[in-house]
Amino acid sequence: MLRYLCILAVITQLLSSANSEAPAYIKQCRRDDPQLVDCFIAALEHLRPYLASGIPEIELPPVEPFKMDSLALQLTEGPQGYKITLKNMDAYGASSYEVKSLQLGQNGGEPFKARLVIPKLKIEAKYTSSGVLLIIPASGGGDFHAVFDGVTADLTGKTSERNGYLHVDSLSIVLDVKKIDMNISRAFNNNRILLEATNLFLRDNSRLVLDAMQGQLQKKLASEFGKLANQLLKNVPISQFYSN
Ligand SMILES: *[C@@H]1O[C@H](CO)[C@@H](O)[C@H](O)[C@H]1NC(C)=O
Asked: How far apart are CA 128 and CA 141, in angstroms?
């Protein structure tokens, strides 16, 4: 009987130590690390390849490409104003983020802040447009391509702790884009004049288009990022962030 209990104790111990071992996508930090913030930054960067391809065991979808639904952009004013709707957006490059700074928050108190830089974000989408562009009727649809260079994303959010798990309660994102390059293709039955007029407009007004996108893009990204973060956090207890 005693022997049986001993074996049981050993097995229980083995199981529980296996349990507290973190999954491969978690890089653990020491609670007493004097550079704890740097360790968390490294842990966030360690996640990159796992986020890129997704983590099936916790049902985390891949962020390459990062999928977004539609954005509706009003680009010129007036009843015949030029409007573009982007649908089925796929963004490539989001997982090559670098964490430039991190400020830890307090659960239920001070927000956390993080600044991420994404060197290049490529966006592919279907677009439809309506209205008049300059003097030409510009209703149509086709493919939309864009490259955002030098994207800085400032994240601010609040967390709370529930039964040993962290939860992101709110998240906001402010984007800054250094340069944007965009065009359309396969539109207007490939009518060159309409295609070129639209592309000329997009090239000369890339800031306008970006400003029209900004608010909606920030809200969508914040909501998608928040969902991703919580999908991960509900599967990894806080104790697994630490090796001690
Ligand atoms: C269209 O834009 C994409 C993304 O910026 C770029 O890769 C491509 O070369 C552009 N095509 C033309 C014809 O300008």
From this structure: 4
